[in-house]
Amino acid sequence: KEMLDSTPENIEIILNLINYLKSAKQNEEVVEYYKTLIKLRPVEEIYYEELLNMKPPYFGYVGELVALYKRKGKIKAAISSFEEKTRKSAPEDSSDIAPLRVLARLYVEDKRPKDAVETLEAAVKISSDSIEDLMLLADCLSQSEEFERAAEVYKKLLIMDKSHNVVNHYVKLFQLNYKMSLHEDAVETFRI
Question: Which pTM does this prediction carry?
Answer without folding.
Answer: 0.78
